[in-house]
Every structure is written in structure tokens, then in C-alpha cells.
């Protein structure tokens, strides 16, 4: 990560008090990014991990020390302002749903649940992102996986990405295909599929070219 990238990320975190400005900026960037989101997120989380940030720092937890409460609240504030869309922020600025404004109790409960999910969006997503720190910690030998512990099942996107990557390896390998097989077109279609659905290509992404 170049000095330019570090400076750009740090600027996004200006105003942070309880956490480092680079971490605040990284949290903001992770919340903002849309295209190549996983690549940017993984690169920034790796950089934060190398600076000492760990999964539990991004979790609320029980009986937190006061310093952790302040740091977590600030992380949540930076991430929330970035991850909520303009429309979502406008919706949250409106008064909470009231039962008397709905024809049925069911409609009210649906609206209430949707509002709660929107309010919890930053904490829910940060809790999931914390798992990526845990993965790095396991790879570094900081967290031991108990023998016989079942592995976390892969998501549908991870399985699909793996299948497409394997298909491309087959097409780009030395396997024989019929002369009538449109080899180049097949490769182009699969690569376009990866791009369309933002699948992991298995190739490292240079974050300096994205920020």
C-alpha cells in the first residue's frame, strides 16, 4: 500500500478520537465501496490486522471496558455514515413507525422490523466483517481451531466463484476440446459472468489502483 493510498484513507478518518484515523478512514472506505468490494475490504482489513486491530475490536461484546465502548461507538459511527445510502439516511431521519399509522398490526410489525434492521445495518455488517480478522488470526496461529471442529460452510457465492475459476482453468489448460467448440467465446462468457456478478477471480487486487 503506497503512501498516497495511506494518506487518502487517513483523510477519510479525520476527526476520529477514540480510534486511529487510518482505521476510521478504512472503516469509512469499506462502507462506501461498491465495485470490487471484497478485494478492497480484504486489503484494508489485512492492513488493519497488521496494525494490531482484531475481530473483537469490531464486536460489541458484553461487559465492555469504557475505552472499548467509546472505540466501538466511534467505529460504528464512521461505518454507519458510510454504509447507509442517502435514501436510508433520509428514512432514518423520519419518526419511527407508530401503530396508529397502519391499517393492521401485521403491517406495523413489518415496518417496525424493517426499521430495526436498517438501524442495525452497521453493527450487523461490522460483526460479519470481524470474522475476516478472525480468519487472519487463525492463519497467523493466534487462534487455534479445536480438533474435529466443523469448518464454516462456504457461502453460495464462494462455491459459485470456485466453480467458475475451475472452469476457466480447464478452458485455459491443455485439455483437448472438439474443433467445433467455441473456446475463446466460452472463456469470454465466463469472465463476463465473473464481472457481472462480482465473483472472486482468485487473483490478488492492487488496492492502490482502486482507491
Describe this structure in words.
This protein is mainly alpha-helical. It folds into 2 domains: 1-85 and 121-145, no CATH class; 154-211, no CATH class. Helices cover 60% and strands 0% of the residues. The chain has helices at 3-12, 21-32, 37-50, 66-83, 86-93, 105-119, 121-139, 156-171, 183-196. Helix 2 (21-32) packs parallel to helix 4 (66-83). It is globular. The N and C termini lie close together (10 Å).
User: What is the ordering of alpha helices and beta strands?
Assistant: HHHHHHHHH
Largest sheet: none
Portion of residues in beta strands equals: under 5%
Query: How many helices in DSSP terms?
Result: 9
What is the 3D shape? globular
What's the helical proportion of residues? 55-70%
Give the C-alpha Rg.
Answer: 22 Å
Estimate nothing, just give the exact number of structural domains. Answer: 2
Strand count = 0
List segments where confidence is low: pLDDT < 50 over at least 5 consecutive residues: none
How far apart are the first and last residues' alpha carbons, in Å? 10 Å
